[in-house]
Input
Amino acid sequence: GASSDKLRHVESMSELPSGAGKISGINAVVLGESLAAEENDLIFPSSDFSANALVSSPKQYREMYERSIKNPAGFWSEIAETFYWKEKWNPAEVCSENLDVTKGPVQINWFKGGKTNICYNAVDRNIESGNGDKIAMYWEGNEPSQDGKLTYSELLEKVCQLANYLKSLGVGKGDAVIIYLPMLLELPIAMLACARIGAVHSVVFAGFSADSLAQRIVDCKPKLVITCNAVKRGVKPIFLKDIVDVALVESEKNGVSVGLCLTYENQSAMKREDTKWQPERDVWWQDVVTKFPTKCDVEWVDAEDPLFLLYTSGSTGKPKGVLHTSGGYMVYTATTFKYAFDYKPTDIYWCTADCGWITGHSYVTYGPLLNGATVLVFEGTPNYPDSGRCWDIVDKYNVTIFYTAPTLVRSLMRDGTEYVTRYSRKSLRVLGSVGEPINPSAWRWFYNIVGDSRCPISDTWWQTETGGFMITPLPGAWPQKPGSATFPFFGVQPVIVDEKGQEIEGECSGYLCIKKSWPGAFRTLYGDHERYETTYFKPFAGYYFTGDGCSRDKDGYHWLTGRVDDVINVSGHRIGTAEVESALVSHPQCAEAAVVGVEHEVKGQGIYAFVTLVDGVPYSEELRKSLIMTVRNQIGAFAAPDKIHWAPGLPKTRSGKIMRRILRKIAARQLDELGDISTLAEPAVVDQLIALSDC
Ligand code: 6R9
Output
């Protein structure tokens, strides 16, 4: 029964990883939101779950973890051996790295000299092992009546046809391809087709605007852009091809011309007759790709050859092209997927992330397929036709692993429990969370209501840069604490450092860094290795700096506390404050802008923008809307400010630096915590701003 389960685990708690202290008082009662209370709240997997798990006790975790740290080469080679390599890596050089900028250029290599192909391993290898008829992907469309599926053999045929078409265009090893598609099966198919021929895909989230798309096109100079004519999100159509048209004109102006736009006809959203067309440049996917052979030889690539570029936000206006390579990324995403979700071959796995983000790369496409899993791809939105859609889908496909973001949990929580309990959800076994810290009350709702207090939650902390999970529960191994991402994955050495870069031991808070590389680490920022070193390796010499704050509690559990740089996290989407600011100041009537993050009930963080107008321009509702529209047009709707705060002046130091600390407090209405404002050039602007808060 339940109480003996607890005893069993309490005994094994003394075997938690090093750094974990002894549990003083165990309290499984809901104690509210304070961290002190959460720290003592342990939630145990059932003994059944643990008994059948890949890692079933803290002891087993600790043994594997210790081995992965003491002998990373041995640990990772053994796993890498389970994949197909055309040529083996040099066994003396499984990993060679330098993370210390003071000792020379930062570089990370894994499985150097090995030749492989991630598409081969994710698709062909499963067919060769007899799973050709297994469903690789289910597809659920925007409308509940639309669906589809592909077996591994069918997936291979589709991938090969596109790969052959790309080859016929002269696209090959090292060439960039931009993919601007919604969640159709054609999106993972396009990624895999690029990987098969050694081309480097760069997926741009289909919620990005034409300007953002153009910026990425100019940076990576793709041979072609792959898109579709339109998609429907709920009742709203989005005309993606029109956005690409604008982006291509914009890129051309900036010296990069792309001669080909391969367009998938997404018939349920828009007919081809209605699509604007430039016959010399545009090609319908359905007209050409289907004519190509369904077999295509694999291009064997070096483990360190680039696999993809994915642009992400940093502290400056220019997005960073995070570059991942083939071998290490393959081994790492597959292994993290397997353990963090305690994957079983019978699982039906659904990750709600879009392939436009890293989660969709590592845990919709590569990680699951490398394990031969059945993956669900969902084109629609969680509240269409109503807020029960996710659970309707869970029951329709008997989803066993459901991986989503806290913002979705919070928004469904607000819509009411009846939407959940209307469905059975009995197939669910493991839940997952990603993108931002999950607050304990959302965690509990997810656990108690969605998972009927039966399914462990893997709260996976990681980043675009890390390629795969870094700090995550292994669901059968240890008790969870709502809101904690728990312990490091195999091979990962997180450390918490103070301002001076000194490691702090035991119970503490500080900056989260990683010591030593792991196979899934990014290798550079495309075209800007210097920015790679400056952003990630210079702040704390010898370490990879994550940009996140973190606390470690008395039991060694990790609690991520959010970004410590100028990046805000809106509904799990990373947005640089500088990007929003530069969009705002491009508005002819905006003189200056300062953007800060502010707590938001559903999105986690909302975007709060202070704007100064050009002399003589009056602030008006119309101007507010037009400022917001400017951001939507330049970045995308997801980056639209939640609040525009008209600021006749901004609080600046005498040297002219904007004091964001003060702006954050004003935005959060924490007016008694403004701190010292005497160093401001004009302290009076603070009162002025406060007075204008409700404009
Ligand atoms: C995978 C992904 C990375 C940033 C990261 C952190 C936040 C992601 C989290 C989390 C707390 C988690 N983050 N997962 N914070 N707990 N489980 O989201 O990548 O888009 O690059 O964002 O997201 O702040 O630094 P990416």
User: Anything to note?
Assistant: Residues 1-34 have pLDDT under 50 and may be disordered. Residues 216 and 434 are 25 Å apart (CA to CA). The two ends are 58 Å apart (CA to CA). The first strand starts at residue 95 and ends at 98.
